[in-house]
Structures are given as C-alpha cells and as structure tokens.
Design the sequence.
C-alpha cells in the first residue's frame, strides 16, 4: 500500500491579501501540501489567480511546499508550461475540460509535474477509470467546483470507494466541504489526500484540525491494510 494520509489546506479560504504568509502559516501548522484553486470565470463561475501569482508564492514560501494546482479552467492545455515554470508540483485538470486527456497527461509529465485528474459531481467515475493507471492522483469533487465553504456531498463517496477498490495504490483526493464532521466518511471510503479550506483556515486552531484529519485518515489506511 503505497499511499499515505496527506492534508492540503485550500488557501482560497485564507486572507488573499496575505497569501504568502498564510501559506507559510499552514505549513507551520503541519500541512503536508498546499492546494491552490485556479478558476477562470468560464469553466466555473468564479475567478481566482493564475501562474504569476503562483510564481510569487513560490518565491515567498521557498522550494519545499508541494503545490497541488486545481485547474478549474476551460483550456487546461494552455497553462501547463507556465505553471511548471512558476513552480507548480502537480497539475490537476478536470476531465470535463478537455477532449484529449491522454495528450494532456503526457504534456504535464514532460513539463516535470505530477498529474492529477479531477471529476465534477455530475461525472461518473467510469469516465476517469481509463486514465487511472497513467495519473498520480484522482480528485473526486465533493462540491460543485467554484466556491469554498459549500456543503459536503456524501453521495460522492461511492466513487471514492470504487476507485480505492480498483486502484489500491492510487492517491485519491477529496475536495469540498471536508472537515472534522465529514472526514470519517472520506477516510472510510478510501480517500488519502484531503483538501480542506474553510474548516482548517477558518479555525482558531488549524494545527489541531489538520492533525485530527490526518489521524482519522491514517487510522482508516491502517485498518484497510489489516483487513487485506
Ligand atoms: O476547489 C474548490 C472549490 O471549487 C475547493 O478547493 C474549495 O476551495 C475547498 O474549500 P472548502 O469547501 O473546504 O471550504
Ligand atoms: Fe479545489
């Protein structure tokens, strides 16, 4: 079992005027990676930031933090090279946004980044499955992409369980409405990379929330390995 529990705060929920400082604060609170939400106002009805911001953030936080780019954009092909040059580590694109996932996976790898493949709530897991052996991470959205602070969709958990049963060593990420109240469902289903925005960043004690999320996921991983 190659995967481990990792917690990635979504910095969209932080004070965007102090993004560099917030990233450093989250890493200091025990985050395993940072989840950066890129929205283009077209694929989703919201706008955030692009590669110039990522480049500045990289300079501000140094070489270590792992940047997981959640690309909620209509033409993901367009930003592969700029994001790699800006210091992104993983490029997670939506299967709904491209007609040629195979080519995009290849381009991302050639740019030196890891590959993540995301599905929106309305997309079946069968559409992701053919690519699962070529990617580093599958992202199952647990809200409709576009905004932080939405309600967790528990009915996405069968997708996670199915992926875990079919691809036992794949990194599986959940994103949207995940926090102390919903983490058990995600962990039991088999998710190991946990994005949490408002629950972590809005907390008075982000360190404790990150630690709790990681413990719940690590225990579920341990239990699964004993049951095998
Ligand atoms: O991609 C998205 C939303 O589209 C997420 O990454 C959210 O920003 C996570 O925030 P919370 O739902 O945890 O508050
Ligand atoms: Fe996200």
Sequence:
């Amino acid at each position: 079992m190659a995967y481990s529990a990792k917690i990635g705060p979504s910095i969209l929920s932080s004070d965007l005027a102090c993004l560099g400082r917030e990233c450093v604060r989250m890493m200091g609170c025990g985050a395993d990676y940072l989840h950066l939400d890129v929205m283009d106002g077209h694929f989703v009805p919201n706008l955030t930031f692009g590669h110039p911001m990522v480049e500045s953030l990289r300079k501000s936080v140094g070489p270590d933090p792992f940047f997981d780019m959640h690309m909620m954009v209509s033409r993901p092909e367009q930003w592969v090279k700029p994001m790699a040059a800006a210091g992104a580590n993983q490029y997670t694109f939506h299967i709904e946004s491209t007609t040629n996932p195979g080519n995009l996976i290849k381009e991302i790898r050639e740019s030196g980044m890891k590959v993540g493949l995301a599905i929106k709530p309305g997309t079946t897991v069968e559409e992701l499955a053919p690519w699962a052996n070529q990617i580093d991470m599958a992202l199952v959205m647990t809200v409709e992409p576009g905004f932080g602070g939405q309600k967790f969709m528990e009915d996405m958990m069968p997708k996670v369980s199915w992926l875990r049963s079919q691809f036992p060593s794949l990194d599986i990420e959940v994103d949207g409405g995940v926090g102390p109240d919903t983490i058990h469902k995600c962990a039991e289903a088999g998710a190991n990379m946990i994005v949490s925005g408002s629950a972590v960043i809005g907390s008075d004690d982000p360190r404790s929330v990150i630690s709790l999320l990681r413990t719940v996921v690590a225990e579920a991983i341990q239990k699964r390995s004993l049951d095998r």
